[in-house]
Design goal:
Blueprint (H helix, E strand, L loop, with lengths): L6 H13 L2 H8 L3 H15 L4 E2 L7 E2 L1 H28 L5 E7 L4 H14 L4 E7 L3 H7 L5 E4 L9 E9 L1 E5 L14 H5 L3 E4 L18 E4 L2 H9 L5 E4 L4 H5 L4 E2 L10 E8 L6 H14 L5 H8 L13
Parallel strand pairs: 3-4, 3-5, 8-9
Antiparallel strand pairs: 1-2, 5-12, 6-12, 7-10, 7-11
Family: Belongs to the LysR transcriptional regulatory family.
Function: Transcriptional regulator of the ttuABCDE tartrate utilization operon.
Protein name: HTH-type transcriptional regulator TtuA
Length: 322
C-alpha cells in the first residue's frame, strides 16, 4: 500500500528536524513530547523507513532517507502555504491571475519597474504578459484575452472599452552614424529620404490594416516587430522611427544618431490604460494601472530626453538641451 502521510505529520517532522530535538519541537508546537514522538513513529510506519537515528545521541539525527524526505516535506508544506495565501486573496477579491497587454511603445524601464513591484506586492497572483505593436494591445483587451492594456495607438473608439490617458512617449527617427542621411549634416527634406530604405513595422492587428504611420520613403522594408526593426537599423540597413526610451543607450554610445527630419511627426503621443466596461479590474490589476500612471508621469519629455543622452542635433553645434 502506498504511503499516505498527513500534513500534520509532515509539519511535526519538519519542526523536529529544524529545532534539533523532540523536546524543542514539543515547545514550538505546544504539544506533549510523547505526542511528538508518537507522530514521528506513525510517519515512519507510513513510509516504512526510519527518519531519525535515535541511538548513541541525545539529539535525533536524520538518516539518509530522512534528509531526502525532509526536502519533500518542505516543498509540500510550502505549496500548502501558497494555496492558503491564494485562498485568502480570492476571498478578499484578489485575482488569481492578471492578464496584461503592453505595447512596445511603453518605455521598457517603466514596464520593468512596475512588474518588479507587482511581483513583490502580489506574490501569489499569476501574471500573463503579451506585448505587441500598434493595435494588438486593443485587440487583446477587446477579445477578453487580456484584462487590461497599456499602450498608445487607440485607433478607434469603442463604447465597450474604458480608455484613460496615463502618460506619454514619442518616436524619434534615427540611423547609424555612417548612414547617408546622417552624413548630410543638415536638416533633411522629404526628397532626401524618399529613396532611402525605411524600416517599418507591420502590425498583426486587423485594426490597422491598410494604415501607415510616418511612412515617408518610397522604399520600405516591413518587419513584424519593433525589436527586429531596431536591430536592422543598428545594422545600417535603413532608417526609421523608434520609441525614444528604446534607444537611449544607443544614442548615448553613438551607435545611432537622431535625424533632423521635420516631416517625421515626433510629437509626444499619449499612452492609455484600456479595459472592458463589463470587466472592471480587481485589486491587483487596478494597482498595476495606477503604478503605470505614476511611473509614466515621471518619463522625460523630448527636451529632457535629449539633454539626458547629451546628443547633438545634425547641423547644430549646441547641445540639444540648450
Amino acid at each position: 500500500m502506498l504511503p499516505n502521510p498527513t500534513l500534520d505529520q509532515l509539519q511535526v517532522f519538519l519542526t523536529v528536524a529544524e529545532s534539533g530535538s523532540f523536546s524543542a519541537a514539543s515547545r514550538t508546537l505546544n504539544r506533549a513530547q510523547s505526542v511528538i514522538s508518537y507522530t514521528i513513529a506513525n510517519l515512519e510506519a507510513q513510509l516504512e523507513m526510519p527518519l531519525f537515528e535515535r541511538s548513541g545521541s541525545r539529539q535525533p539525527k536524520l538518516t539518509d532517507a530522512g534528509r531526502v524526505m525532509l526536502e519533500d516535506a518542505r516543498r509540500i508544506l510550502s505549496d500548502l502555504q501558497v494555496m492558503r495565501a491564494r485562498v485568502k486573496g480570492l476571498k478578499t477579491g484578489l485575482e488569481a491571475e492578471v492578464a496584461v497587454a503592453i505595447s512596445v511603445m511603453v518605455p521598457v524601464h517603466a514596464t520593468v519597474d512596475v512588474l518588479r513591484e507587482f511581483r513583490d506586492r502580489f506574490p501569489y497572483v499569476s501574471l500573463r504578459l503579451d506585448t505587441g505593436e500598434l493595435g494588438t494591445m486593443m485587440e487583446l483587451v477587446s477579445s477578453g484575452k487580456s484584462t487590461i492594456g497599456i499602450g498608445g495607438s487607440v485607433v478607434k473608439q469603442d463604447d465597450a472599452l474604458v480608455i484613460e490617458r496615463i502618460g506619454h512617449s514619442f518616436m524619434m527617427p534615427v540611423a547609424t552614424p555612417t548612414h547617408p542621411l546622417a552624413q548630410m549634416g543638415r536638416p533633411l527634406t522629404l526628397a532626401d529620404v524618399r529613396e532611402e530604405v525605411q524600416l517599418v513595422v507591420t502590425d498583426a492587428s486587423s485594426l490597422t490594416n491598410g494604415k501607415d504611420f510616418n511612412v515617408l520613403s518610397y522604399k520600405t522594408w516591413r518587419v513584424s516587430d519593433i525589436a527586429t526593426k531596431h536591430q536592422l537599423i543598428r545594422g545600417g540597413l535603413g532608417w526609421g522611427g523608434l520609441p525614444a526610451s528604446f534607444i537611449m543607450e544607443d544614442l548615448q554610445k553613438g551607435r545611432l544618431v537622431p535625424l533632423d527630419l521635420e516631416a517625421y511627426d515626433q510629437s509626444e503621443y499619449p499612452i492609455y490604460a484600456v479595459r472592458k466596461v463589463d470587466n472592471p479590474p480587481g485589486p491587483a490589476a487596478a494597482w498595476m494601472i495606477e503604478a503605470f500612471r505614476s511611473r509614466l508621469s515621471r518619463c522625460p519629455n523630448q527636451e529632457d530626453f535629449k539633454a539626458a543622452v547629451e546628443i547633438f542635433l545634425p547641423g547644430d553645434k549646441r547641445l540639444a538641451a540648450e
